[in-house]
Amino acid sequence: MADKKSLKEQVYAAVIRDVISGEYPPNAILSEKQLIERFSVSKSPVRDALIELCNEGVLRSIPRFGYEVVAYTEKDVREIIEFRGVLESHCLRQCAGSLTAADFERLDQFLVQSEQLAHSEQEIVAHWENNVSFHLLLCSLAQNEYIYKELERSMNVQLRAYAQFHWDRWHKTAIILDVDTHKMIVRALARRDLEEALRVLRQDLGLWNESGSPARF
């Protein structure tokens, strides 16, 4: 593509992909010159992509040195999951009593597609994207665009953090997507059992307290 915006998007997407794949590991240093040569583009789209990557917390600008790939800690991941728990629990409470037959049809259709993906040997990123789509679909039913965007951003950060911790294992393992908890959430909502839907959501997110009981939000 020839226009400046699309070139920026190409550079942005390529850097994200390489961070997730481990091509650019945590604390790796990128430079404008390196990316300009790699993509055979001018400085402007590369600089715009780097600015956006810094704004999103993927990179950190180090003046007169380059751009460092942000390293995540296990504490970062725990905080992201806790944040997701607050957002998604709120969304379920907001929409649980007003879901329509059309809403459940959308959810059921998505679960059918998930089942098909679960029995295929896809890369981990494809399975994660399916997981993201389910949680964003649930969130969208609350009709709060700000929460939707924050949840999407949080899950993108979570993917990058997981990739840093676990990419070697993911890359060598055939991942089978478990959609059982997603089904259980939808079934609980269909029964208008909000507490059960919240319990399974917390289980799906891995939100458990030290006693082994689900964390409360």
Automatic annotation (TrEMBL):
Q: Which GO terms describe its molecular function?
A: DNA binding; DNA-binding transcription factor activity
Nucleus as UniProt keyword: no
Q: Which residues form the HTH gntR-type domain?
A: 5-72
Q: Give the UniProt keywords, A-Z.
A: DNA-binding, Transcription, Transcription regulation
Q: Which Gene3D superfamilies match?
A: GntR ligand-binding domain-like (1.20.120.530), Winged helix-like DNA-binding domain superfamily/Winged helix DNA-binding domain (1.10.10.10)
Domain of life per record:
Bacteria
A Pfam family assignment: GntR
Q: Which residues form a coiled coil?
A: none
What is this protein's name? DNA-binding GntR family transcriptional regulator
Organism annotation:
Harryflintia acetispora
